[in-house]
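Re: export button greyed out
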Amino acid sequence: MASKILIIVKKEMRSLINEKTLVLAILIQLFIASFSSFLVIGLTSFYDPESIGADIGNVNLGVYGDRENGLVKMLEEDRRVKLRYFSSFSDAKDQFFDNRIDGILVVPNMPENSSDAIKIDLFLPENDLKSTLITVHLKEPFEEFEQQLRMDDIEKLPPVAKLNVEGAKSTSSYFEFIYGLLIPLLMFTPAFISGGLIIDLITEEFDHNTMDLLRVSPITTGQVIHGKLLLSTIIAPFQAFAWIVLLTMNGIAIYNVIMLLVLVTAITGLLVLCGAILSLQFRERAQVHFIYSILLLLLFTISSLLPNSPFNLTAKLAVGSASMDGFTMLGLYIVILIPLYLVMRRLINVLEG
Amino acid sequence: MMIRRILTVAKWEMLKSRSTLSPKSIAVSIILIIILLLSSVATSEYGLQIDEGIYIVATSGGPLLPVLESDHRFSIVTVADEEGRYLLQSGSVDLFIAEDTVFSRNTRKSNSALNALESSTKKYRERELWIQSDADNFYDAFPVWVETHYLEREQTFFMVGEQERIDDGFEEERSGTGGISESNVSLPSRFDTPMRYRRSGMTDIFVPPDNITTPSQLSPPIPFESVLLSFMFIFPMYFITQFYSASIMSERVNRRCELLLASPVRRSEIVIGKMLPYLAITLVTVIGISLFLSDPVTSLYILTLLFPVTLFFLAIAFFTAILARSFKELTFVSVFFATAMSSYLFLPAMFMNVPTISAISPMTFVVKLLEGEDFAITEYLFSTVPFYLTSFALIAFSTFIFREEDLFTQKPVLSKALDVVEASLSRKHPYASIFILSIVFIPFAFMAELMMLTLFFNVPLPYSLILFMIFIALIEEMLKSIGIVALFSRKVIEPKTKNALVLAFLSALGFFIGEKGLIIVTLVPLLASPFGLIMFGRLLFPLVLHTVTVMIPAVGMRYYGVRRYPAFLILSVLVHSAYNLVISWGVLFG
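Workaround output, generated via the alternate export path:
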């Protein structure tokens, strides 16, 4: 029995390599990796353009209004942003449209009554990286200025939490992106692909009408399907492992590698079993793929409602923050496979008559 | 007559696809979709929270505890002071907090946790002030308000990693184009606005307009929601093209279309007829979604943007269904194209504030429309013309090989691709068809190059430009010489030196003319960038050089056989990129 299943595994593997589908699968994953890192860089260009190399030193900011204002003093001390002072707003405006300055900051006089608010106007070019740069850069001085004004009225305000940091401080961008998005995505893309693969492997037998031929061959239909299942499931953790090696080579430490691979195998098994059940039930490839895609989205949204969803658990395992309930959940993901497997067995029995 | 035949084919296709959908699978799909919608509502309430609990923080309590509890990224361990210090040192927690003091370790994870804690403390503080302040001390809590006004003005090119503007000469070229809307920009009155929002009592819900914020809420405009919404258009496209390519593939497997081919209907009519129902369904879906998201006029604009995209999706689906050997291969090839296409469509849209990049994709303008903005006709042409041209070319290619000997044979994809090239070359006029093929390939080169542009955008200068140059050379040299490879390997033309030289010249000429044509049509907004200079500043790569680089593989194959083609291709790519590098040395390093 086992040796016959292995024959099928070998046969399907050979055809995968022949058709270069594995190469395509790896290309797809490379695309997804670059796609998601690109997305984050695109997003970062909105939140923090300096991190992608845009330099605030190239930006000229026009200032119109009260030069004695505490905010202007703060900006002067900063020295990184070049300030140009204007005594008339229309001059500033002209220079703005001549591309000589990239924004106009209108600073009002300080209010006489301390309980009045102060309103700052900021004129920026539309759809321009420079306006993002200026906005992001001015946020901090604005906040500091606000904090200064609040200090005058501190006794009137409710007490709120403050933070004292002891020890070294350095920023590390992309950390949460790498562990919270990229690694889970890379770990599970092979699983998604395997689920699609089993559908093709089973439905092509129906489509070519070879299922009937199999019945008279020395290998049973059940063995053929088990072989296909096995192949689709085992190729996923290998791809995941390759990603782990690549990430480690790039200096990204990954914890709990074995647990991660167990999790990937369990989720792949789950998706492959779902794919197999759908294929045996509906038999027509386009339909099965359609239902599988919806099911995939559904499983993703529903599981994200759980604590320790597969994606979250992967992030926690990889970053080294997994707790006991995480491991319990992993066990649960493995247990789910049993009823699914039994359902599939029943469908095979129906098929074999 | 022709239209009637096309419609007949379309009707058959419709009837056939109806019979393949079983009522049971429709029922299952509908139930799953309903559960999906319900669960995605729940998920959007709750958030995806993939990063839930990725930091472990030990604390002995204190004022920061509610901050920790407000942020799902922290998993909290309550400990005594001594134990907390020990846990931090041993590395089993990332931060230790005693009262209002935070202790961290100098690791990436611990630093990142500290950043997260700082930002959520700030957020928590602002929120507490917001909730706890009342009408009397509201402006004491929020004494500063910022109003942002966005003005439209002509833009200068500004690149990531760039220290200064590349060259002032570019700007002169652009002066005089584009309108500046200087009208009604005047100094706003200074104190009126916040006053209007003074709250009358605690129960008042305070919602200032978007452009007036407190400093901590100040953030650059991010079209994130619109980008997500525009994904809604792409999902149905994926599914419909899946059904389309599956239908074509199953006809090939079952040899059902043999009957069609034997009928008096022409091949082009079969191809168009089979595509028609899927095109109609996709366009109706697009209209439906856009009516749901916006008004009828905007929907019409969205349709004009997405029509070429739909056409391209269907053309690709058809082409891959004819190329693939099995369903397995079809799945992989179509998933590959789907990912490539979505990066082409969505990556540029993420760079809304870098117009040079974002103008590449029609999706950018869909997002803009949803944000209530407009686009110019030149922008429409620039982003959609490549889609139109490549779709037509792909449909033409598919028609050429929609014949018995190609449909029912199984060959590796590459050899099948060569068949396509061969089938589209006329045996009677091989020289003329080489020339035309080069022109037809231009939009493909254009799209591939734009794709490269987005992919290399995050590599720092000058490496991005160098990589870009090499890949462009590869794409162009491959497309210029592939027709000659087909002619030589299929023995249509005898591989003589004279033939090789003439073919090389014709291919280069076609490419040269096609390039100029495309630049005129799209009026390339990219011209002002150094990338544009390499792609379109064809003064850089004149006809002579185009000819020389095609001659390398052409003559090479004449003497060393078609099998050595890759080696000579690499050689020509090297010559091509070396020339570009020398010419643009000044821009890169000067």
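The CA atoms of residues 33 and 59 of chain B lie 44 Å apart. The button fix ships in the next patch.
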